[in-house]
Amino acid sequence: MALGTRIVWFRRDLRLDDHPALRAATDGGGPVVPLFVLDPRLVGAGTMSPARLSYLADALHDLDAGLRARGGRLVVRRGDPREVVPAVAAEVGATAVSLSRDVTPFAQGRDAAVRDRLEAAGVAVDAHPGILIRDPGTVTSADGSTYRVYSPFRRAWARLPLEPAAPAPGSVAVPAAVPSEDLPTVASLGAAGRVPSGTIRGGETAAQARLTRFLDEAAHRYHDQRDLLGEPGTSRLSADLHYGTVSPRAAYLRLDQDLPGHESFAGELIWRDFYGHVLARWPGIRDTEFNPELRDLPWRGEGPEFDAWREGRTGYPIIDAAQRQLRQEGWMHNRARMVSASFLCKDLLVDWRLGQDHFLRHLVDGDVASNNGGWQWAAGTGTDAQPYFRIFNPVTQGEKFDPQGRYVRHYVPELAAVPDRWLHHPWDMPAAVAREAGVTIGEDYPAPIVDHAEARRAALAFFRRE
DNA sequence: TTTTGAGTTGTTCGA
DNA sequence: GTCGAACAACTCAAA
Prior knowledge:
It is a single chain. Helices cover 45% and strands 6% of the residues. It contains 20 helices and five strands. The protein binds a DNA duplex (15 and 15 nucleotides) through residues 141-143, 145, 147-152, 227, 267, 271, 334-335, 338, 342, 377, 384, 386-393, 396-397, 456, 460.
């Protein structure tokens, strides 16, 4: 009996290792079509930053190379997946399409539409985990509801059994006759010459190397160092996890839970699952406050405050360093994200949705669920949000997490010669020190656009609706 | 149904 | 400089 052809529709699971949907397709031994669809709604210079397009191009080339090493190749098509996936299925005579379940409102709507059309044409769709460690709906409280608080979620998460990781298939038999467009490049995606110089290399090969290096060299001190802005103490795996070039499950299973650093990192992976569960359950929170009490706050919209923030000229060195890092690398240190988000929401009272969209577009790891969870936490509007009175002080945070000023001096070079003592509040420098450092506040570097103490009082009143 | 303990990431003030 | 309390009460989850 001839085996039916199966399509594996890759989206943000761009790897061969520990890929349940891929294994479901290859394990039968029949013909397989590994498909990636360039959806102009997502993959365009208008919606994705050059850093993200660069990572995606790298990842697709690496995936193709991995498939070729196994006797296959990647088939790329351009267009709306609602048209393209059923068309390819008809073209190759597919009996089934395998995919990894996604959690965003956009992906869920798209996948439901594609599923309807495929099933109407007699093509089965099987959805697998792979984007999260545990898919939405699998971690619930006793009455079956979705957790709104992280700690009980994590306890329930940890009680469930975990399947072992599945190795990459040994061979992938792709029919020779299936045509493919050329693999996209940075140039073909319209981002030539605009990719930030510090953008990381994408793809499973680079991602696996980063994971191994992190586990060997940094994970044991992750707990103590991940908040230090000037140290390489974080995993740098966020983009790899977002594009699925690292399997979160495989990464989790490589951790040694007895080491505090590993345990902290496991917690971050579980946060990722938590926010995935929350968004899948309450898709409306992508654009609306999770907390209904806080849905009509009079946030500021676009304007000079937002512009100063995103352009890195607020006059607060830690904030400006963070925003400039984002522009230069398409990435920002996690602690800097928190401080920066707090500043936009609490000091400038600018709508968290503007910050969310800005991060989503520019972060190479921009992930709807995690990004939304982080922003709603910072704004105080989300699940398990920080208390309204917790307002980060940008000077204190700088002194605490960038004590030697390595981070600020790197990204805000005009302050490089300012002594540690004044670096995080340069407006307080005595004139002689400023002269020595070659900085005139208000000329070489902006004066602070708000007074933090005043802004803090204003934020408290804002949340009290005074 | 009721009760109870707990809740990512902080700051400021006053002793 | 260090330390504890206050900052509000509320919701969530589980017993």
